[in-house]
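Here is an idea for our session: we take a single protein and study its fold together. Start from the sequence, derive the backbone structure tokens from it, and show both lines together. Once you have written the record down, we can walk along the chain together:
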Amino acid sequence: MRLRALAKINLALDVIGKREDGYHELKMIMQTIRMYDQLEMNISSRPGIRLKTNLPYLPVNENNLVCKACGLLMDEFDVTDGVDIQLNKVIPVAAGMAGGSSDAAAAMVGANRMFGLGLSMQELMDRAVKIGADVPYCIMRGTALAEGIGEQLTPLSPAPKGYVLIAKPGISVSTKFVYSNLNVRNITRHPDVEGMITAIDQNDFYGMAERLGNVLETVTIPAYPVIQKIKQQMIAQGAVNALMSGSGPAVFGLFDNKAKAEAACRKFKKSRIIKRVFLTGFYNNGV
């Protein structure tokens, strides 16, 4: 069985407060994009989970979310067969694009089908939150409002079509570092999440783009100024707007013109500060 694990970006990311359990209360608009890792899963008569990847530095044991996700379902349903998994990574690692979460989501979907567990999407999502806050969304996909720690999901109208240019500098950012250094009381500007939802409902690309916002930039950009430089270059190259995704460091620009987006992509590929560039678009339930 082959499955695609699609990346996400945050069109809006707001932090409302900090909960008693230490997690942050979030309000985000999540969007799936057409950039994906691929998992190949094969049932084996040999018990256990065996994972191989195309990146030698990734763990291939229970420290990888793919193994955790498969193990969760296989343990619950007493699956006696084993599974061999080949994971081919394309989504940048530790970039704020939910690559690991999406891989875990695909593994859960695959295990459910392969072993005939009969779980609905909602039943998979209910279990997925045990693996990570983004995993339920990565099962659902599309345009969605995410609240709580990211697990309370409300599907939205499909986002207006445009071109999405992803640029990742040659650095990695720790999500734990960003959230532990975020002081909610010091946030003075919050994204207009409700306004963005209205713009999306009205299929208003420009209204959506002008409301891009991510409060985590207040921590990540001072620590890694290259992110602000990339945002500025995106806009200079014709993006309607640009934003850091998640806790970073990946930056995306929204373009209304394919030729401009392709020209910007070529320019970024020559940039010394950029390690990965990818031109794509939104994904909404096959649309």
About this structure: The first helix runs from residue 65 to 76. The chain has a mean pLDDT of 95. The two ends are 22 Å apart (CA to CA). The chain has two domains: 2-155, 163-280.
